Structure formats: structure tokens, C-alpha cells
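User: two proteins, same treatment. go.

Assistant:
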Amino acid sequence: METLLGGRPRSRKDLRFRPRSRSAHELWLVIVDASASTRRHQALSEAKGLLAQLFDDAYRKRARLALMTASGDRPRWQLQGLKASSDLGGWLEDLGAGGGTPLQAALVQAANWLAKRRKRFAAEQQRVLLLTDGRLKAWSGLPVFNCQAVLVDLEKGPIRLGRAVQLAAELGAQYRHIEDLTRV
């Protein structure tokens, strides 16, 4: 448009280039602990409500999403840096919990993926959301995400181990409990 406002271009130097968007894209990496322990006391159901809202916000902000689940014997990528879409509702409906908690492997894999992506898209604003009940037997050598990170604690019920607080501190993430986020 700027080129045309200056009149008919006669040479290459008359052309004016401007990027489509001056703001950097956002990438939201969501890691969902879908182990069997997250089924207790409808914790995963509440997490699904939170995720539905998050997916809707990402779609409206035109953010890119990366989505990983940690259940069974290894973490699995569901999306890797695609634009958020309304198609995620079906995936969210089918999300179930079961098996072990390969959360440490998921965190390491996610941190490595983010580091590679940061080299490729330096201006991209990265954010991490981790949903877990923190029920890991042990962990060591956790990665620190070099971006804004939030851990949402899904642990509910009368007996709480409180490991998610320590996990958030070691990851350098803000800590929030699901009950605080879902209260009206």
C-alpha cells in the first residue's frame, strides 16, 4: 500500500516493504499431565474446562499452540507450534487419563523443543502452562524454561502431598491451584 501511495514505482528503490505484523507472534506450550492420578476428584475434568478457555483465548489472540500430554510410558506431542483452531474441542473431549507419569521426560523434551524454536523464531514470545498434580516419585535435573511459565496444581482431595509447589519452584514457574482458577 505504501508503494502505491508514492505513485507508480519506476525502479526497485521505489518499492517499500513493511512486514504484515509488527508484533511478535506468541507461542503457548501446554503440557498436560494425564496420568491416572489426575482422574481423582474430577481434577482432569476441571482442567479440561480451563483448557477449553485457554484454547479459545489462543484462537482469539491468533497465538500458536504446542500441546503435549504426559501419560503412559512416554510423553506425546499433540500439536507443535500450529495456529490455534476450534478443532481442539474434539481432542479435549477425548482426553482421558491413565498409566504412569512421564512428566520429567516431557519437561526435558519440551525445554529442548523450545530452545530450538527460540533460535529459529527469536522474536516469538513463548509461554509455558503445565497442568499436573505433582505426584511424581522423584525428579532431578529439571530444565528451567527461559520464558514465562505457570504450573497449575491439579491435586485435590483430603490428602494432598503438595509436591507441585516444589516442582514449580524448581522449574522457575509461577504456582496456581486449579481451585483458585475455577472459582466464580
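Protein 2:
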Amino acid sequence: MRETSITVGLLSDTHSWLDESLVDVFSDHGVDAIVHAGDIGEESVIEGLQEVAEVTAVKGNIDGGDLRFLPEETVLELRGRRIGVRHISGNPRRPHRAAREFIQRDELDVIVVGHSHIPVVGRVDGALWINPGAAGRHGFHDERYAAFLHIGEDGGFEMDRIHLGRRAEAFD
């Protein structure tokens, strides 16, 4: 599927730090778009990502300054598939009411969330639920992650998790 697919880079919870190896991975894989599910921290993170591809981002609970003007949720449409983005949303087993309403109201095919720093994939109300995990070095997580979402010509999905290494290694 990947030869003719659109590839979306997914990340969350960078907390003011953009891992250059992630920028390289997104560049090397030719991502067509990037989704940041909040807790960006600083505008420089978005600026660095925009050098690779167009970025769709939402505000997380730590985002202040000009980032406070980002939406709490947004929808990106690619190949006829609706990809919703929110920061605080719960998880697929216990989605927050606002996340479930977002899925239903906007007829989402995919919802990309953050906040928990825990990578997870599931289904809620027919939508593919993806938390790519935390890509930053601040928080309680031990490992850093991001993801690729591939959308085929037929609208089908494939996903790959990107392991960025241990959080502690990011301080070296």
C-alpha cells in the first residue's frame, strides 16, 4: 500500500523539544502531512516540523503564548478520510465524553490524541483511535514514540509506530 499511499507523521507531547532524529525520520519517509496532538510547548517545534511538511496541530494543556490560540480540536481530510485531532481525550476503553461527541459529530474515521504519554491504538464508535505516545523528553514515560499513518488510494489505513529511544537518552 505504501507506494501509492499518503503518509501522515503523528506525534504528541513534545513539551518544547523537537528531536532532530524525528525530523530526519519524517523527512526520510517523505511524510505528506504532520499531525501534532498538543503539548507542543514552543512555536519552534511547529516551525521545525513545517520544514518537513504542513502541520496540523491542537492546543495542549501546557500550551501558552501564541500556541494558546490553537484550536482544542480540528479535522484534517485526506483521501476522503476525516482525521480528528484533540489533546485530552481519555483512552479507547474510557474515552472522554467530548472525544466521543467529536467522533460522532464530525463523523471521524480517525482520532489522534495525546496527553497520557502512552502509545495506544484502538477503536471508538467506528473511528480508529491513535495516541502516538510522547515524543518529548519531559514527563513520566520511559520510552519516546511517534507514528506514521498511511492512507491508501482506497482509503484503507496502515500504521507504523516509531520508537525514538529512551527518554533519559534524550538528555545526553
